[in-house]
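ok, trying the design again with the full structure, not the truncated one.
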């Protein structure tokens, strides 16, 4: 087998991954205390927040703070 099974991000790729990667975002303004459902969440660029593979763990979580429409969802926003 050629190459390595280990995936590695090179320094030259980091800016592109951040710009073109995806994160979870609020589809609309959501109040503090709101319990997130799939209809509340959009998957958009750029990266920098919770990644799309975190979606199932985010659904059902309660918000600690209010989120504005199209605001990136971060771990510290969730209870």
């Amino acid at each position: 087998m050629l190459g390595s099974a280990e995936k590695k991000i090179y320094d030259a790729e980091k800016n592109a991954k951040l710009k073109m990667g995806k994160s979870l975002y609020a589809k609309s303004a959501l109040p503090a205390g709101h319990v997130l459902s799939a209809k509340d969440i959009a998957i958009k660029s750029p990266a920098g927040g919770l990644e799309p593979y975190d979606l199932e763990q985010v659904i059902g979580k309660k918000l600690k703070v209010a989120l504005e429409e199209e605001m990136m969802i971060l771990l510290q926003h969730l209870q």
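Keeping the full-length input from now on. The longest strand covers residues 23-26.
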